[in-house]
Amino acid sequence: MRSKVNPEIMRSAHSLRNHRSAHSESVRTSGLSPSLLPNTSSSCEGFRKSPNKPLRIMKFGGTSVGDASCIQRVVKIIRSASRESDIVVVISAMSGVTNKLIDAAVQSEGGTREAVARIFTDLRKQHGAAVHALIESNVNRNRIDQQMQELFREGERLCEGTTLLGELTPRARDAISSLGERLSAPLLAAVLDESGLPSQCVDATELIVTDSYHGGAEPWMDLTRDRSVARLQPLIQQGVVPVVTGFIGATEDGVLTTLGRGGSDYSATILGTALDADEVIIWTDVDGLLTADPRLVPDACLISEISYREAAELAYFGAKVLHPKTLQPVMQQGIPLRIRNTFAPEKLGTKITPTGCANGGGVTALAAVIDAAMITVGGPGLIGVQDVLGRTFATTTAARTDVLLISQSSSQNDICLVVSSAHAKRTLEALRHEFSHDLAHEKAEHIALDTTVAIVTVVGQKVRGMAGTAGRIFAALGREHVDVIAIAHGASASNLSLVVARKDVKAALIAAHREFQLGALASAMFPVDSDRPVAWVYESERTGSDAD
Length: 548
Ligand code: ADP
Ligand code: ASP
Ligand code: MG
Hints:
single chain; alpha/beta; eight-stranded mixed sheet; four-stranded antiparallel sheet; 18 strands; binds adenosine-5'-diphosphate; binds aspartic acid; binds magnesium ion
């Protein structure tokens, strides 16, 4: 039997973990039910770690590798980390590159060859400039240059094929959009190597085995673990730093897939889980997980520690700093995740742990899904239609739609689903198809789409249990003349979600942030040790060792 991110399989797959330090064991297991813990008596061979070095997976996002000077910062961080840890690097495409590649794919479907050619010229320039600024030896530069030209030609061929077909297949879209990571990873590996740190680029298609759902593939964890251990363990044991392409994987038959936009975060935690890492670090362009999106709430503050559950809710409800599925793999094993700033590596960032840091059960942070759409299935006759809810959810499941929020009037006159805009059209069509008979006989009056909404979510460990939270938020939004279109309160103890008009999102977030005093409450940052260019000793661990 295959496992996706399945606790049963996770449990049987982690054997022979003889070298775990007492400290990491206590961090890793707290707050998890024993049934989710690895089974050390399993016969399956796991990852053998160095006796004294923790294993860290370090993922660098697009802005962290945006140009040559950013890549130099990344090299410095990796070199510093490699002195005290075994490292596996996961890297995104240079910033903006995936967007450009998807634009090329879409343009090629429309037959606009000139636009596609312009995009590839631009991408050649961007990568060429980085190669020339970063790689000193002629031999290495020529090698990387040739490798890149081969990838650009592959992309151009895929676009040309798309133009000839007049159709952009999901498989071709994945293949084209994967090129960014396949370009950046060999470049970083070569720069690390030249800096004196042995490094090798590893294509994640060799490691992460997925299903065949292009554009949002899911990993098969048992196969992924076997391949990752077999491929990466020898490199790590030889002191070589693997630089793995984020965002991508491949089916068992070797067909390239992608994990969804922003999916390199997910790649990092999939590999962290497969290798039983001590920590996964997401390096990005902000200090950590903040109390709200800083682009919308200027006085958003750093959260120094937060629970898996809260972070997962924030990611799911729009905090772009983490891909929505990032927490899933590590939660099952209790592996801590940290978010840190590539541009301020002296800061310690946010630590995400099983239990988080108690803040009295109040509101911890806010998030917003701006590109949401609301579908309503309704009409007075609906009450006579059989199994409306069951049919609705069977339909959304078949369409692979993530339903972000549901609200239903008790008389069954109206069901309202909020989904991401990307899924809206196909979900609407699927529902209209499912209920076509009821629509024709006017039992269902309408199945309508509203694309002008957004979701604002309030997250905290016990938001549901807090008397008056809903009242306070309604009052705060009311003062700003923000209408609440729908509310979901209760499915999860740790979130309360409101649907508002998209134009009101910023006002709603600022009002809620002020109401719950998030700017003031969350600012208890760990102190920064200014003598350390890159901080590796975390304050909590320092305190722990002092006490020993
Ligand atoms: P990367 O390229 O490193 O993957 P992303 O752009 O995907 O980075 O994510 C980082 C961005 O997420 C930040 O620049 C910030 O604007 C946005 N963001 C949204 N919500 C939050 C939040 N709650 N905390 C931190 N950043 C957030
Ligand atoms: N490069 C991919 C994207 O832009 C994956 C990522 O950055 O995480 O979606
Ligand atoms: Mg990202």
